[in-house]
Design brief:
single chain, 140 residues, alpha+beta, HIT family, subunit A
Length: 140
């Protein structure tokens, strides 16, 4: 059975993509820590980040860094948080989110965002920031 992330990547489920390349995608989570919370996911379905081939893990981190810079710009955050948890979906992924203080990493505060316009706005702000940083070829 394919993971929910594979279903989003293949288009079987909807996703608000902000980055797409041949190895990695990034899309907004529907259960954000803060507006702009993005998941960076390898296309290859591998359960644990520790099992990713080093080259693919490197690509995931390179994309996460680009998304992190865009998150800082798009949301005026002093930092972009990066977290690898891996328990919620059996498909390796990295969380990138705007961060002002440590409470912004409290995964117990996650709630499903029902405001579709807010998610659309966050995605467009990130796409714009990624384009501003020279990544237009990866922005859908």
């Amino acid at each position: 059975m394919t993971s929910v992330f594979t279903q989003i990547i293949t288009g079987a489920l909807p996703g608000r993509f902000v980055w797409q390349d041949d190895q990695v995608v990034a899309f907004l989570t529907i259960a954000p820590l803060r507006a702009g919370h993005t998941l960076v996911v390898p296309r290859q379905e591998i359960d644990k980040w520790t099992d990713l081939p080093p080259e693919l893990l490197g690509r995931v981190m390179t994309v996460a860094q680009a998304v992190g810079r865009a998150v800082e710009q798009a949301f005026g955050a002093p930092r972009a948080a990066l977290a690898i948890a891996g328990l919620e979906v059996p498909h390796a992924h990295v969380h990138v989110s705007p961060m002002w203080d440590m409470s912004d990493l409290d995964f117990n505060r996650i709630a499903v965002e029902n405001d579709q316009a807010a998610l659309d706005d966050a995605a467009e702000r990130l796409r714009t920031a990624l384009r501003d940083h020279g990544h237009a070829s990866y922005v859908p």
